[in-house]
Structure formats: structure tokens, C-alpha cells
Amino acid sequence: MTGRLLRYPLILNLAGVAALAMFLPCIHALAREDHHVARSFGYSGLLGIAAIAMIAVAMSGRRRRVESDLNNLLSLFLALSALPLFLAVPFHEALGTTRFLNAYFEMVSALTTTGATLFDTPGRLTETLHLWRGLVGWLGGLLIWIAASAVLAPLNLGGFEVTATAEPGQGDTRLDRFERANASKRIEQITATLAPVYAGLTLLLWILLVVGGERSFVAFIHAMSTMATSGISPVGGLSGGSGGFGAELAIFVFLLFALSRLTFSSDTLTSARPGFYNDPEFRLGVMLVVGVPLLLFARHWIAAYDVDSVENLETAARALWGGAFTVLSFLSTTGFESADWTAARDWSGLGTPGLILLGLSLVGGGVATTAGGVKLLRVYALYLNGRREMERLVHPSSVSRAGPRSRRIRRQGAFIAWIFFMLFALSLALVTVVMAALGQGFQEAIVLAISALSTTGPLTVVVGEDPLRLADIGAAAKLVYCAAMIVGRLETLAIIALLNPALWRD
Q1: 482: which residues sit within 8 A by CB, 6+ positions away?
Q2: Is the Cβ–Cβ distance between 288 and 359 less than 8 Å?
Q3: Helix (H) or strand (E) holding 417
Q4: How far apart are CA 485 and CA 483, in angstroms?
Q5: With pLDDT > 70 as the criterion, what percentage of the chain qualifies?
Q6: 191 CB-side CA count, 13 A
Q7: What is the DSSP letter of 500?
Q8: What are the distances in angstroms from CA 408 to CA 165, 270, 285, 381?
Q9: Among 377, 6, 456, which Cα is nearest to 156's?
């Protein structure tokens, strides 16, 4: 059955999954006796399944074509840009008091795991609509997990180009002598492997949050948002929940999965030594999670320090925890703010350390995870290259002790990483200029551009002195923000790979 479904284009299968997912909020609305919302999701799901079935029947008589990796990359691009049009239909019909553009914006934000929202007024959305936002974000995270191995890795994109021997957007020529599984078979195998892990971790986190005292519905949304690093919350963040420190601790542990895929897999190993302890991404991420809060904590002693007391010790502990949790949250591009983040800011003496959060979001998490940003592996490649160049300044005739794999990352990998950095910088500059031309101030345009390209929507709320309300920006600015979210999620190199003539030759 699965094999027959995978004969159809990937975008058609993804649309079918989206249509089936609409029945979960339909059931939730029926349980709450909200019949208008239930009809909106139920009818949209039924009409979607009917339309997809008719398209499948119409395509069944065609000669079967083997889906290539570039075709699946195109389907992934369409899933992030066109599929939200379908996802926005029940949201728009159920809410009934907003334009379709706003509903489309909300679905693009959720599917790309950005988490930016136009509906930040408490009570504007019902619980069912919050459930739909969280579910779409969760499915978007699963899509990125699967696409990283099934679509991006064979094309040496999404961070894999740093350690690969082939050029980005092309297969590895060393494997041409072997017969590799076709794209559809690979998607089937990777989905069967990763989907149970993703769902199991979400279920486990949900149980831990409920045990910690969080309300079941809020815990479910926060569990999905944590695994997808979307930062979607029905109560305005963790501070609006009732889980307290226990909920933050559980989320903190599960956010570590966004630093390196080696915590549950070995398909992105970058060294000959196994284990996530030896993984450079994980070590670099932990160093940032430990180092940045300690710097904020140490800054306290620049100002006057009161007499020692139990109250000061408690405040110090809260400040250290609030800094560590928030740093990991924004490094993983989730955007959850700790309830003790205010204590961390007061302790350090910084009113709003927004530049630090912007920098962490730009760095991002690990390769082949749901985190966005530039990725830790690219930062590590540039670090290796910079360290070697400094050694050569001191000893020009020195010979590196690194092995062939480390030399590959330090040379070709750093070169590709630098190209990506330049493309990212150009994208950031372009989005900033366009946003400024559409009426946004320079600071607001910078925040909007970084939050979209790094897929960290909560940056718009926590970076500035006053929250930036996305509902106040114009229609053109919203469309630009949607485009930036898609570019940030799929990455510039992957979009350039779509211009490959092999994709359009047939």
C-alpha cells in the first residue's frame, strides 16, 4: 500500500497527510461542542481527500516516472510555499474574522517551524485553532527531519555539503558504481525509521509536562513545539503555563536533540570516533549554552553587589538557570523564554540583551535537525579553517596533524560554509532593505529579517524593549516575511539547486 502511494509525487502525498490531519482538530472541536469550527475542519478534510483522490486517479493511467532527488526537492519547496494555501482554508473558515492572507501567513509560519503569529491577543484564537497551529508546526518539523536524510543529504545540501566530497546539489560521484535505492524507497525507509522516534519523544515529553503540573492541552502543544522547535504556545509561552521549573527542565533536556542528530542517529557522523560526546556540533552547542549564561552571570559583579544572603543565592541560581534555558531555546531556534529570564536580565544589568539572542538564533542548531539558522557544523568548519590559518601565521611551514576527514572539513567544507554565509548575509541584507522600503524602521526590519531567515518567530516579541506586533505590518511586508521564512527553512543553496537544468530538461 505504501509503495503504491509513493508512486505519486511527494507533494500529493503531503497534501493527503495534511487533509487527514484536519480530522484531529475536527474531533477536538466536536468534543468542545464548537460545531462551526468542527464543520470547517471536517469539510475541508473531506474535500481535500476527494480532490487528492481525483488527481491520483487521473495520474494513475500515466506511464510511471521515477522520482529523482531534484523532483523531491521541488516538491519540498512546493510543500513549504503552496501547501499552506490548503492548510489555511479551515483556519480561515473557522476564525471567520480575518483575511485569508493572515491565515496563509500563520500556516507558513507554523509549517516552517518559525512560530511567528499575528494573533497574539489572548482569547483571539480558540483552543482548536491553537491545536491546529501546533499540529501543523509538529508535522513541519517531522517533514524537515525526514527531508534532511531522504532529500537534502543525497544532494549534499542542508549542511551535508560541509562533509561531502561532491558539489552541493549533486550526488556523490564515488557512489555512481553502486545501485542506490530510488528516492521513493528512501523516503519510505527513513519515514518508517524516524516517525516513530519523533512521535515517541513527543509523547514522552507530553507525559513529563503533565506530571510536572502543566494542563494537558497546553502540555501537548508545548511538547509538539519543543520537538519541532517552533515555539508555538497557546498561553503566550512557558511563563503563561503552570508547569514551573519542572516543565522547563523537561523541555531543556529535549531541546538538546536540536543541537545534534547524533543523540539518536549516526547518519551525520563527522569524525571517525563514534558518540555524540565526540560530535563537534554537540560540543560547540554545549559550549555556547554554558558559556553565554556564565558571561551574563559574571557581568553582575561589574556593578555593586549587595551583602551575601539566602535571597541573593536564590536570585543567582534563578538568573543562571534562566540564562541557560533561554540561550538553549534560542540557539535551537525554538524561542521559548524562561520564566526566570527576567531575573537573568536583572542580574546581568542588561535591560534587553536582544543582540545576544539574535546572534544565537543566527547560529542555529545541528544539521538534519528541526532547528534553523546557519547550523553549528558550518560554524565549526569555519573555526577549523581559522585556527589552521592562525597556526600558519606563526609556523608557515607547519604540517597539520589532522586526518583526511578533518582536512576535508577545514578546506573544502569551510569554503562551502563561507559561500553559504555570504548567501545568507545577502539574503539578510535584501530582506532588511525590502522591509525598510515597505515602511518598517531599520531596527524592526533587522529583527524581522533575522527572525524569518533563522525561523525564530518569538524574536519579534522578546528582542526589543517593546514587542513588535506582526499584525500591524502591511500586506506586502507579510508576503515578504513569508518568502523569507521559506528561504530560511529550505536554505539558499537548496533554492539555487532548483535552478539545475536537469530538473527542467524533461
Answers
A1: 104, 105, 108, 109
A2: no
A3: helix 414-437
A4: 5
A5: 85
A6: 17
A7: -
A8: 8, 10, 22, 9
A9: 377
Per-residue exposure over 291-321, b if at least 16 CB sit within 10 Å of its own CB, e if not:
ebbeebbeebeeeeeeeeeeeeeebeebbbb
Let me know: does 202 contact 223? Beta carbons within 8 Å.
yes
Helix, coil or strand: residue 125: coil
The residues near 506 (Cβ < 8 Å, ≥ 6 apart) are: none
Q: Give the C-alpha separation, 86 to 83, whole Å.
A: 5
Question: DSSP string spanning 427-483?
Answer: HHHHHHHHHHHTT--HHHHHHHHHHHHTT-TTHHHHSSSS---GGGS-HHHHHHHHH
CB under 8 Å to 200, separation ≥6 — which residues? none
Q: Which is more confident, 68 or 50?
A: 50
Query: Where do the H-state alpha helices sit in 148-272?
Result: 183-211, 216-228, 244-255
Task: Write phi, then psi, for 263 (nearest 5 degrees).
Answer: -65, -20
* The three three-digit cell numbers of residue 321, written as one number: 538557570
Q: How far apart are CA 383 and CA 414, in angstroms?
A: 8
Q: Taking the chain, what is the end-to-end CA distance rounded to the nearest angstrom?
A: 28
Grid coordinates of 275: 558518540
CA distance 446 to 425: 12
Locate cell 532593505: which residue?
Answer: 433
Return d(Cα 104, Cα 303) in angstroms, integer: 48
Cα–chain-centroid distance for residue 188? 22
One-letter amino acid identity for 26? C
| Cell numbers placing 189 | 525507509
Location of C-alpha cell 519542572: 246
Q: Give every CB contact of residue 339 below 8 A, 6+ residues apart in sequence.
A: 238, 239, 244, 248, 322
What 8-state DSSP symbol labels residue 167?
P
What is the pTM (predicted TM-score) of this model?
A: 0.91
Higher pLDDT, 60 or 505: 60
Alpha helices in 256-340 (DSSP H): 280-298, 310-331
Q: What is the pLDDT of residue 49?
A: 96
Residue 115 has pLDDT above 60, yes or no: yes
Contacts of 480 (CB under 8 A, 6+ apart): 431, 434, 435, 438
Assigned C-alpha cell, 43 = 469539510
